[in-house]
Each structure stands twice: as structure tokens, then as C-alpha cells.
Amino acid sequence: MELFKQELIRLIPQLRRYACALVSNVEIADDLVQDCLERALSRHHLWDSSRPMKPWLLTVLHNIFANNARQYMRTPRLVSIDDMEDISDHKDTTDSSLTDLQMALEQLSTEHRQIILLVGVEQMSYKETATILDIPLGTVMSRLTRARQTLRQIMHEQSSTGDRQ
Amino acid sequence: MTPENDTVNDIELQAFVDNELDSSRHAEIEKLIQTDARLKSKVEEYQKINRDLKQLYQPHLDEDIPDRLIKTIKRDSAPKQIPLAASLLIGVLTGLIIGWFSRGEIQSLQTPPPVAEQIVEDAFSFHAVYTPEVKHPVEVTSEYEEHLVSWLSKRLETPVKAPDFSFAGFELLGGRLLSSGNSPAAQFMYENNQGQRLTIFTRQKRNNEDQPEFRYARRNGMNGFYWTDSNLSFVILSEISKNRIYELVTKVCNTTNLK
Q: Is A34 touching B (CB cutoff 8 A)?
């Protein structure tokens, strides 16, 4: 159990990264991570310790999100200014193409955003992604392709509107 | 374009970018890319998106982990050998005790008061409804600012004013009378020369609605801050970056009696 907990703590930053990207509000993202940790702890006997924990945790998180999507996507919960400064500090040091990317991501459907993040950021294999999202491998590939095409298209549109202004 | 290139569809290209192809097909596509500039630029674009994505979310990995998450893991170490019925009983009793001692506190610590949720929700809705308006974004234009302000102050039963954001290039367009949770509310709208708009939504402060610090909220690409002063509650919203809004609003709060 101690090992399980250590591994859980080690993975929190990655869970938070995925959750923050998913719901774009740190406080709600942390709610989601907290729910995920609680459920993982209560079901730790289901974890096969011979396999990496991250895909398993992301599956848990995804199930919670899918079952309560409405709750997590609801009206912005207010975030204290301290939390907010943390994030925006980082953002200001990054270049504007990243801001464009973030804006484009926010325009994607949750389904598309999820798959792009799981593969592109969390480095999940297609097979792991299929398990996490509970969809066939072929769907992972076609959905990912559609998602990236849409993202690319939005970004092209953004840059052409930018030129006109 | 050679016929072979046609066989590389977008799905396969994604799999190439994600290193999901078997090594022989990977090598084949790698070769094709060298001779097909269109294919190459597409692959590079997808690779860049992946790199940028990682960079974009990297800051979250460096943040301190919130205490509550660590606590979630640490506190889950109740001895498991206690018989089920006994542990249930302990659980119920602990719940009762914690519940009793923390009554009234949990809400204020974990979530802002519901009235705040309401005004923020209303501010986002009215912002979304009126800022896209080309012809009638406001009810009374800034030409009659004096009248607008005195009318809204009268309806809100407390002095309101339209803060001056011209130092940041935002000029007042005007305002309108609205409502929030059954009480009168006012919206002031501003615009800069790039056509970006900003609104301030305000109504009388409710009892127990003290929020002297700014709190941040975001929805559909709009950034907003909520705070209260001695009489009024405010929500400022715009599509511009949260840092810029924060800068604007703190400046105004320091130089006028808005706060």
C-alpha cells in the first residue's frame, strides 16, 4: 500500500496537467484529481502492480469525468487570485503561438481535446488510449486524426484572421 | 506525386508522428517524406503541435501539489484490520464529530457563496448576449454618460460609476440596466480600437457577500474577475488576457473610489 501511495503521489502532477487541460479551471481540475485519487485508493486492489500505473489512473479519472461531465464543465467556479497568478505567470513567459494553440484547443470538443492530450501530452500509446477512453483502437486512430485536423484548421483560421487585422 | 504517396493517408501519418507504426512502415514513410515536400510540412506541423502542447502544459508539472491532494492520500491510512461493522461505526461517528465542528466553515473555505456564483453566471451570460451586438451594444450611449450613471445609481439604490479605462485604450460605449438574482444590475461596456470589448457588471452587495480579493473565473475564452467593495459587487469580463484585465482593474481600484 505504501508503494501504491508513493506512486500515486509521484503521478499527481501529471494527473493535474491532464485535468487542467481538460476543464480549463484549476480548482475544478483539482476536484477531479481529488475524486480520482479517492477512487484509486478505494480500488487499489484492482491495480495490477506489474503494469504501469499511469494508464490505469487516467482510466479512473476518465470514468469519473465521463460520469460527471456536466458537473465538471459547469459554470466557472471562482478561483482565488493566488492560484490564478501562478498560471498566468507561466503563460506570460511563453510565446504567443502557445496562446494560439491553447485558444484553438479550447474550441475543440471535449472528445477531441481528450484524445489529443492523452496521446500528445500524456504520451499514452494508441492501445492505452483505447483502454482509457473505452473505445476500439480503430476509433482512436480516426478520432485522433479528425481532432488534429480540426485543431490545425482552427489554428490556420486564427493566423489568417490575425493577418487581416 | 508518386502513386505510393497516395497510400499514406492522414491516419497513417498520425501514427507515424506518434511512433505507432512498425519499424519497416516507419522507415518507408520516412523515405517518402524526404521526397514529398507537402507530406514533410504536414508531418512537421503535427510534430510541432505535439511539442507545443507539451510546452504549454509543462508549467503544471512544476507547480506545487495542492495540500488537499496530498492529504487525500495520506489520510487514507486507517487500519484495515478493524471489522467492517466497527469501522463503519467509527466512520459514522467521525463524520458526525467532524461535521459538527466544521459546520458553517466548509462552504466558506471550499466554495464561494452561491450569490457570487449567481452574479458571475449572470455577468458571463449578459456579456455573451450584448458584446456581439453591432448596432445596439448598449441601452444608453456614453454620450449621455452623466445621465446613464445617475439613472443606474438610482435604480441600484447606491452610487455606481463607469470606471475610466481609457489609459488602456478601452473607451466607454455606454451601459444598460439588467437584473441579477431579482435585483437591478448594471452593465457598462467598453471597446478598444481593435474591436475587443470589456464589460463591468455590478449590483448591490448582498449581506455576507464580502469578497475584497479578486477571484478569477473563465468560460468560453472569456476571462473574468469578481470582487466586492463596501456597497457593490463587481464582475469584469473580457476576451483579453487575464493578466491584462487584472492590471486594468487593479489600476482602477487604486486610483478611483471604485473600490
A: yes
